[in-house]
Amino acid sequence: MMGAAAVAWVLFIIANYVSLVSSANSMWEYEQAEKVRIASFIMLAAVIILGLGALFAKRKLAPLRTAAELRSTLVSPVSRLASLMLIVAAVIAAWTVFFTFMDGLDAGSGDVLPLVRLMNLYLPIVLYTVLVVTLILAGFVFLPSGSKRQAHTSEERRGQSVDAGQAPGATQAISSDQGSATRAPSPRADVTPKPQAGRRTAGFAYAVPIVAVAFALILGLIVYDLTRTALQVWIWVAIFVIVGAGILAGTVFANRSRGSNEISAPVVTGAKNLNFVLTVIFAVVVASMSLGYSSLAVTGLRISPSLSLSVYSESEKYGQPEGDTVTIGKPQLSLWGSDLKRGSEAVVVIDPDGTEIMRARVDRNRWANVDKTVPENLAPGTYAFIARAEAVDGVPLEISLPATVKENGDVSFPSSASVSSDTEKSRLLPVTVGWLLGDLLPAGVLLGLGIGLVSGTILVRNPERSTRS
Questions:
Q1: d(CA 84, CA 57)
Q2: Which is more confidently placed, 412 or 121?
Q3: CA atoms of 272 and 283, how far apart (whole Å)
Q4: Nearest by Cα to 120 from 6, 235, 41, 202
Q5: Residues near 255 by Cβ (< 8 Å), separated by ≥ 6?
Q6: Per-residue pLDDT tens for 234-267?
Q7: DSSP character for 322?
């Protein structure tokens, strides 16, 4: 166990160094394609070695704890240390899953190969989830029972009773006659319970909520990869429905394993506490998100539509202002709009011929943004880049940025090199059915999920009181 911890420590250092080298190379090569993160797999190997080393020690010590006559004074403290290391490895793995998911939602807008995305995000989440479930089940639920030692002890006790002058059969006969005289035989006396039923139920109590969380996170990443936009509120609702269902199922399994004689009380208590903690975390998170989304929905009724068009240059010269104008080589236009009508499009055309040069669709957040290089085949002359959009309340917006194309291809713009619709004033939108269903309802559903899970788990954990009431 200590050797595994030392190896894990070395791998942690190697992973940090590899990550440092990779980040340094990416700073010098800004436009390089994203590669498979070797450091993350080295870190995964470190957590696996740490967890499996502790797991091996705990399973080896489990039979010794059931045999009092063979137990050393070191068995209990070493077993507790192994349990602590198991918990540490499981917590590290769980936190890594969460941070991997958040890193996947903050991957930027660049194109990434699907295989690289799979290796950097999806595969680590799956492997860490498998590790957490394995450590919990093999380290706390399905431990060796030490039945051989217990059988050996029972044989010794049976031999002692024979030496004392009592035949084994006689004791059984006397107890049988006394039992038949005092009570009727139970109709379930011949029913043999399944030896692993209680352990399986406790295992499900641990595994189901963990697997549900991992599945929900993977679903969120899939939606993000398909849309390449921030997760919308209804996607979060679907994610929390899956997580809540897993926690509720885990609570049900934990409650069913409460009366089992095949598993120790701490295992059942641990399953109940795990699902209780997850329920509390779930309620806090959904309540916070519900408040956040409801506040956004209300503040979204106040709008300040704006549309701006600016010009810049990345690789070519950006001239010094010459009076009221500035000359730019190979200019790029940037269109930005806010509080625009969802689903509409903001376009930029060149006047006087009306040729469209770029277009952007307004997203759910009522934003639109697009960048594009000014066409190089423009003949020398005077032009105007006109941007048009529609505000969220249907009011049209239009701005114009004048430009002059010179003989050498450079383009002169006003010295500010930008124009915006800053004359628009703030105003309030009316409360409509569309706003109630599209903006406010999801926040209410999130709050309802939290209340429903808390209420459901309380009823499951206290079935006697719920039936009396």
A1: 12
A2: 121
A3: 16
A4: 41
A5: 272, 460, 461, 463
A6: 889 999 999 999 999 999 999 888 776 667 788 8
A7: B
First to last CA, the chain: 51
What Å distances lie between residue 277 and 86, 210, 282, CA to CA?
19, 12, 8
pLDDT of res. 177: 44
Q: Whole-angstrom Cα distance, residue 294 to residue 442?
A: 8
Is the distance from CB of 305 to CB of 397 less than 8 angstroms? yes
Whole-angstrom distance, CA of residue 161 vs CA of residue 153 = 13
CA distance 128 to 92: 9
* Residues forming beta bridges with residue 373, ordered by sequence position: 332
Those residues whose C-beta lies under 8 Å from the C-beta of residue 37, and which sit 6 or more positions away, are 19, 22, 119, 120
What is the helix (H) or strand (E) element at residue 90, kind and residue range? helix 75-105
CA atoms 217, 222, 225, 228: torsion sign: negative
Instruction: Give the pair of three-digit tokens for residue 202.
Output: 């406790």
Residues 6+ away with beta carbon under 8 Å from 284? none
% residues pLDDT > 70 (the chain):
77
Across the chain, mean pLDDT equals: 80
* pTM for this predicted structure: 0.74
| Residue 58 buriedness (CB in 10 A; 0-12 / 13-18 / 19+) | buried
Per-residue model confidence (pLDDT) at position 421: 65
